[in-house]
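Write out the bound-state structure for ribulose-5-phosphate.
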Amino acid sequence: MTQDELKKAAALAALQDVVEDSIVGVGTGSTVNHFIDGLAGMRDRIRGAISSSEASSQRLAAHGIPLFSLDDIEEIPVYVDGADEIDDGFCMIKGGGGALTREKIVAAVSQRFICICDASKKVATLGRFPLPVEVVPMARAHVARELARLGGSPRLREGFITDNGNLIIDVHGLSIKDPVAMETALNQIVGVVTNGLFARRGADVLLLAAATGVERQVRS
Ligand code: 5RP
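---
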């Protein structure tokens, strides 16, 4: 199976977690695109979706799935999203697609985070994938210096502007032994909007696709 076929298998497995007649939280990325296409087949059984990016909103709208604003909702039962890396404790690096801030916001109002991944995303220690950090443009040089102080090699994502009008700095060369502490430390840097560590609010369920099938793991 190709990596994209594995992504699709994980995404379609998540359809069984969708709560009937609810508003579904929808992440961003190539794995989630398969989930959105699958959700279209059951759009009469859900009220609609809360989206984490302009790209996902466009795809949902093209399928005729109603979009809701977070101003209309206090809580949603399920959020489905991919990851760039996920560890044994279900802490993740996210933001390869640059949607980390809205993803973290939708995850924060969700009762359950369902992570959909192909098996290549499972790691023992987070950090091989460069950690995305969304930054207010005027703070870019300051934030880069602070990120270097934490032991990483910051690189501006050239030509990329987030849906919120900010920049992304990708931090290379980190080996993240304590994801909660690192997420907290990054949150303290003035000018950082969001960092791509999802440790304080990690995934609750992992649907991990390998050639042998989709394994369902629940956080203990
Ligand atoms: C986007 C994300 C994605 O979930 C992550 O980059 C995985 O993407 P893909 O499903 O394309 O491998 O965090 O900001």
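---
The pocket of ribulose-5-phosphate is lined by residues 7, 27-31, 81-84, 94-100, 103 (CB under 6 Å).
The CA atoms of residues 149 and 178 lie 17 Å apart.
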